[in-house]
Design a protein that fits this description.
Blueprint lengths: L1 H17 L6 H14 L3 H14 L4 H14 L2 H14 L3 H13 L3 H14 L4 H15 L12 H4 L5 H17 L14
Helix pairs in contact: 1-2, 2-3, 3-4, 4-5, 5-6, 6-7, 7-8, 8-10
Amino acid sequence: YHDEAIIYLEKALDLINKNDNKIGKPFIYQRLGNIQGAKGNFTKAIEYFEISESLINFDYVGKYNLSIFYYKVGDYESALRLEKIVTANYNLDYYFLSYSLLNYSIGNYLRSYELISRASQENPSFIKIKDLLKVMIDIKIDESKLDCEKINFTEFIAIQDYIEFYDVFFTDYKKIKINNKTTDLDFIISPNL
């Protein structure tokens, strides 16, 4: 259905360009960007969002989406620049959650914990993620804690909305255990990995 949506959106762009009507054009580019992002074409998604932003200074939803695509292609500087704008002006728990993961992934642990704390204040269901994040940060900072920490990922994996967090934490934990030549993996392996 993505390819069909792209066809219709491109037809809409043709009509807008033929009629010299610019209303709606930035939003069509955002939709095209979201579709490309859903297809995993993050570079193309960024192109569409940058075109949209050049036409209209879009809202925080657009900035959030663009920042996530920057993160997906490894342009952390651009992602963090937008993260600061969005989190300063838009108080939405899921944005804080996503940006917490972004910051954790690039080693900004303090900022990551600050953002997950804000998210869990807004949405108490994120408290388990906050607790898990703290354990993972402690392990990343001091790998000697690895042997005494028992992380139960089972409850966490059941929350499908947060699978990306699970995958990042699980992968990190597994790497740390392998690097420390520890074979007693004390967590449940995800069927997705």
